[in-house]
Amino acid sequence: MNPDTNKPGTTAYVVTRNMARVHGIDLHHVLEGDAKKPTLVLVNMASHNLTCWEVVLAPLLEHFQVLRFDLRGTGKSGWGDKAQFNFAQYAEDLAGLMRHLGIKSAFVVGVAYGARTAAQFALRHPTMLSGLGLFDVALTPPVDQGDQGALGAKAMAMLKDAGMAIPERQKYWRFYENRDAALACHTAHQREGDTMAALSAITAPTLVACGRQDMNLDSAKEIAALIPGATFAVMEMTGHGSVFYRPDEFVRLVTDFRTSLIDV
């Protein structure tokens, strides 16, 4: 259920955008911006819905047409068989959504959990990719996240000491319609094999970035080294879920990478 059912109409979550029938389910999505600009697809991190990108949406729309969507079982998207809660299926869902919308190619950017879907998309649909962005990424299961809280608090303290503004995190960024479906979506990593060996097959221009205060930093470095020609960036004073620590730096990295995208 929506955790905010007692306060209808008070958050961005209650607004249903668009539904597309893809692989037997309804995918909740929104496509915004100038279609003449490059298309940017944003893939949500774990336990988040498409509203979470509001912290970076306005500046990104100055440079891109932006597609946001809820992974199957999360936010307002539907879901099907439990066996379909895996990153390969999430990538197929995105490919189906892009075809539905007439998008031939896009710069696909995933943060944390979303980076796993983005990586699968790159491996399965290389001709639909103008570029790939992997933020806060680790691909080997299982991933130890035990110290992320302490490292995130350290990053927050550093930002505060530097006098930098930190966006307020909203509860509705994490709303969903069905608890069991959302949990199944966000535990796919427990059933996922190691995809590191396949990364050398990625040919699209790739940006890999990770916070200095993120347990996935070493994994992100290794992933960047395995993808031919990948660009690697460290985000200072930044924990896991980098877009919520340094939205300005996230926007800068993504927009600066436009010049590396495949022109299709």
Neighbour order of strands in the largest sheet: 1-2-4-3-5-6-7-8
According to CATH, the homologous superfamily is Alpha/Beta hydrolase fold, catalytic domain
CATH class value: Alpha Beta
Let me know the average pLDDT. 93
Q: For the report, how would you describe the main beta sheet?
A: 8 strands, mixed
Unreliable segments (pLDDT under 50, ≥5 consecutive)?
1-8
Total strand count, please?
A: 8
Classify the oligomer: single chain
Q: What is the beta-strand fraction? A: 15-25%
CATH architecture: 3-Layer(aba) Sandwich
The tally of structural domains comes to: 1
In CATH terms, what is the fold-level topology?
A: Rossmann fold
What is the CA-based Rg, rounded? 17 Å
Distance between the termini: 41 Å
Structural overview:
This protein is α/β, with parallel strands linked by helices. It has one domain: Rossmann fold (3-Layer(aba) Sandwich), CATH 3.40.50. 28% of the residues lie in helices and 18% in strands. The chain has seven helices and eight strands, in the order βββαβαβαβααβαβα. An eight-stranded mixed beta sheet has the order 1-2-4-3-5-6-7-8, sandwiched between helices. The N terminus is likely disordered.
